[in-house]
Amino acid sequence: MTSPINPQDIGKQKAGAAAAELIKEGMVIGLGTGSTAKRLIEALGERVKNGLHIVGAVPSSDETAAYAAQYNIPITNLDEHPELDIYIDGADEIDPQLRLIKGAGGALLREKIVATAAKRFVVIADPSKKVEQLGHKYPLPVEVVPLAVTPVKNRLARLGAQVAIRERNGQKFYTDSHNLVIDCTFPEGITDPTALDATIHSIPGVIETGLFINLAKQIIIGKPDGVEIYPQ
Ligand SMILES: O=C[C@H](O)[C@H](O)[C@H](O)COP(=O)(O)O
Question: Would residue 132 show up in a list of annotated catalytic residues for this protein?
């Protein structure tokens, strides 16, 4: 297990540990992606080592699959288990209506698929992820078929976004599903996430957006002195 060194990391660990306690014997679960999801996987791995038996975990990325395997968490998929008891994942931004921006790590498509397969989606985060309005801290990622990236980028720019095709280490970034990501910054923030999501989805070549609306049921915010859970 990693040793947290700052309050934000301690918060992620507290949130991950609290969420691991929601996982019960015999469940089929979904595992998110990112640094906070890793803290969940570590805490769940500890419980599995101590005898907790889960039927399986559906990972939301190749990275999560590999990390969960290190902790001997049994991996499954949505063909074997199309309905999950719970999905637990981090987020980049969380607004007061529990709407999210996700995808800073590029896992948005699989995350949304796995989240949608779950009866309950619980978000784990440190306090920095709470915002009054989406879109001010993180760009909105839009996953796009590579063939369509330039026309989609132009269409997104016409919606008022500052657009950038995501790169990693100076190279185009490809998702686990071999698509590209366009990061969209809206200088005024996102005033109507539902309408924006529908508009972006109507552009041919768009696979998914990082807007998660009406999906999260509960938020666990970890802080050095404990966790805040809402709604209770
Ligand atoms: O694609 C990445 C995911 O949406 C992550 O869940 C999100 O970026 C939060 O990651 P972290 O817990 O590292 O802040």
Answer: no
Percent of the chain at pLDDT exceeding 70: 98
Domain count, the chain: 2
Convert the pLDDT of each residue in 41-82 to its tens digit.
999 999 999 999 999 999 999 999 999 999 999 999 999 999
Single out the catalytic residue among 42, 93, 111, 208.
Answer: 111
Are 182 and 210 in contact, with CB atoms under 8 Å apart? Answer: no
- Residue ranges in the chain assigned as alpha helix (H): 7-20, 35-49, 62-70, 108-116, 149-158, 193-201
Same domain for 123 and 11, yes or no, is yes
Which residue is it, tokens 């990390």? 67
CB of 90 closer than 6 angstroms to any ligand 1 atom: yes
Residues 63 and 168 in one domain: no
The residue type found at 149 is V
- Do 202 and 224 sit in the same domain of this protein? no
User: What local confidence, expressed as pLDDT, does residue 5 receive?
Assistant: 78
**Alpha carbon of 104 to ligand 1 centroid (Å):** 6
Q: What gap in Å lies between CA 9 and CA 2, rounded to an integer?
A: 10
Distance from the CA of 127 to the center of ligand 1, in angstroms? 14
- Model ipTM value: 0.98
Residue 86 lies inside a defined structural domain of this protein: yes
Indicate whether 232 pLDDT > 80: yes
Which CATH number belongs to the domain containing residue 94 in this structure?
3.40.50.1360
CA of 197 to the centre of ligand 1 (A): 19
Nearest to 40 by CA among 23, 62, 63, 58: 23
Whether 105 is in the pocket of ligand 1, judged by its Cβ within 6 Å, is: yes
Instruction: State the pTM of this model.
Output: 0.96
